[in-house]
Design brief:
The structure is a single chain. The chain is an all-beta fold and 330 residues long. It is 1% helix and 48% strand. It is built from 1 helix and 30 strands. It starts with a strand and ends with a strand.
Length: 330
Amino acid sequence: TTGTTGTTTGGATLYNTPTPLGGYVVQAIATNGAMAGNVLANHTLGQGAYWSSPTAAPVLLQVFAAGDYTTITGVNSNGQIIGTRSNSNLSPQAIYWPSSTGAPVALNVLQNTRTCNPVAINDNGEIVGSLSAVDGQPDRIVYWASPVSQPATLNATGASTPLQAVALANSGQIVGQYSSGSVSPFYLWTSPTAVPQQLQTLSGDPQVYVSRFGTDGTLYGGSGSFGGTTHPVKFPPGSTTPTALLTTTAFPSWEAKGVSNSGDILGGRQVGSNNEGVLLRGTTLYDLDVVVPNTGNYTYFYPSFILGNGSLVLQGASTSAFVWLLATPK
């Protein structure tokens, strides 16, 4: 793997051999390393699950009602978890768990709501989500000041609609996306009551993509074109102007996905038909297929998350099924 300081060859690794997560998929992480997700059975999401730390045993979450289909979407450092429930007679309904052992509770919703999908919960208990209404209005982003509060729609002045929520920072910053069309702008709300500001691209790029806030409110993503070159970027807290991250001859195109407490930046890139993981550490870029040991049983695909301690949640594949794995740093 070529980086700015030379070439790393052979079996040089930065991580321990990854451990399979035993039939679970991780859907969300908290700033303290807690994780939440779902049981994965026959490629189908099942009961919700919670890990108090990356290496803790999973705790199965209570279901709202028998026959429900549950999807976990967020978790915070206080152990509060959000998601949706649905069944053959019910469109997705927003719910939250006050703790990993508590019973799930329905979130309050606005009148004329058809579906409501919470997307993120921060350490203050604030929640953002996406709402689809039955009144003919375009989809919009909703905000809860706490899991027991009444929701309010975000100010959409100057933004293209429909909108869907993407991410929420502990500082109260919110990111959303125009959810229709081939070029979909992303918007930043510096607070739940602010007017949206469109995130800018690097010069000459048609599109920006963002996915996750760091603990300090920095936003990570990419600037480029779908199916073409993507330049990794970050947005400082409260800023709509991107800062370019490192690219090299060996890594000309990749997108930033998250950051550890020590500053390691996780990313992904498209190489032919394959999705590959990238790690930026200091001034060196690494291919995760090289620096994460492969036992020969798995092929590594797009990494899902990097946790504060630098551990990685990876999506891999065995000979018969997708597998989620945890790789801890050396």
